[in-house]
Amino acid sequence: MASHSLQDERINLAHLSADQSPSALATALAEQAYRAIADTSRPEYTGRFAFFIQLLAQTYTNLGNAERATELYERAIAFAEESHYVQVKAKALLGWGQLLRQVGDIDQAMPNISLALELFEDLGAQSDLAEAHFQLGLAYQAQPTIALAQTHLAAAVKIFEAIQAPRQVAKVQATLRA
Questions:
Q1: Nearest in space to 90 (alpha carbons), one of 44, 136, 45, 27
Q2: Which domain holds residue 41?
């Protein structure tokens, strides 16, 4: 039986033009990467690629393609659960929650972000935990539930300060002042 890996997939840059916008270039590269992992019949495309799929979902979130991002977050979560990659599952839940918050679906965003926060707490992943508090704070602001928003944003600042992440502290503090 022949072996196949993502390394066998080539990202072809030849057709990309230097005069393309950064967004168009990013979209073209993301689409090539998506096609490389879209074949779910490959058995090796389970947990090993959950992290990559989660990163690609974040890329589509940043590009504004909520439908493709959602599909990839769902796949990353399923693959991470199957392979017991808890941190990847939590990152995918957090990213999906952030996407849902950004499109205004706060009721769906909250459970994803809350579960991600619990998983990061269990793992002791401080930077990710702080980001989850930040995202949950933003979700509560959107409801608006100001007291809970303030609580989570303050928790994010405290953790970011503890891990010496001054840019992240500034990002959260700017949200607190807004």
A1: 136
A2: 21-177
